[in-house]
Amino acid sequence: MNRVIELSDIRRVFTMGDQQFAALKGVSFSVSPGEFVAIMGASGSGKSTCMNVLGCLDRPTSGSYLLDGVDVGGMDGDQLAEIRNRKLGFVFQGFNLLARTPAVENVELPLIYAGVHPRDRRSRAMVALEMVGLSGKENNHPSQLSGGQQQRVAIARALVNQPAVILADEPTGNLDSSTSEEIMNLFTSLNRQGITIIMVTHEADVAAYAGRRMTFKDGLIIDDTN
After folding, report:
1. For the chain, how many structural domains are there in total?
2. What pLDDT, on a 0 to 100 scale, did the predictor assign at position 1?
3. The pLDDT value given to residue 2
4. 3-state class (DSSP) for residue 177
5. For the segment 2-51, what is each residue's pLDDT rounded down to a tens digit?
6. 194 near 33, Cβ under 8 Å?
7. Looking at residue 117, which CATH number applies to its domain?
8. Cα dihedral angle (192, 4, 62, 114), rounded to 10 degrees?
9. Burial class (CB in 10 A: 0-12, 13-18, 19+), 98
10. Which backbone phi and psi does 212 adopt, to 5 degrees?
11. Residue 40 within a domain
12. Backbone angles phi, psi at 224, to 5 degrees
């Protein structure tokens, strides 16, 4: 069975002055294509550090990480940036949209970095906006969109490169409960279409949408249930 994510004995130690702090203490798990995984845990449990490793934003101190079959351990900064852009789609709590840029151009950003031709960029961005239910809003700026619509633009941007995995970090953290439900239903629908999603959340009702829930505590996985 091919795995889209394979972490093996991942450790991450931070040095602060003469103190060392182990944020991850030997984490191993794999994720198959099409899974929807929620990562939970209290503040300081290691879940955010794990997400940063998964997103190739931070390097583990030791252990191995295979992303879509590629060992990212020996990659330099440029190679990591390229694999991030090709293989990963990111959705953040704060949306991270460019305020003065219409929705369709926000969605096109990963394609610009990937060197896609402008004409193809526009058509792919429009398809992604349609996938998240925002047809007709492509020329709206973020200030003209509700919080839920802004997060949909962010999800379209994450989808546009057809990544191997979408990484969502507290994607409902800035949304009210009914909008959160709307966004989680969208994630569920995308997952049913075969998109692999890994999401960090501290909210049990949000995690309940995922087919698999992992709980971190003190840098270790203490629970992993389907």
Report:
1. 1
2. 64
3. 85
4. helix
5. 899 999 999 999 998 999 999 999 999 999 999 999 999 998 999 999 99
6. yes
7. 3.40.50.300
8. -100
9. exposed
10. -140, 135
11. yes
12. -150, 100
The amino acid sitting at 38 is A
With respect to residue 66, please indicate whether it lies within any of the assigned structural domains.
Answer: no
Q: Which DSSP symbol is given to 142?
A: G
Residue type, 194: G
The token pair at 161 is 């490169």
Q: How is the chain split among helix, strand and coil, in percent rounded to 5?
A: 35, 30, 35
Q: Please give the radius of gyration of the chain, using alpha carbons only, rounded to the nearest integer.
A: 17
Per the confidence metrics, is the pTM higher than 0.85? yes
The tokens of 128 are what?
């992604």
Q: Is the pLDDT of residue 52 over 80?
A: yes
| Cα distance between residue 122 and residue 143, in whole Å | 21
Residue 23 burial (CB < 10 Å; 0-12/13-18/19+)? Answer: buried
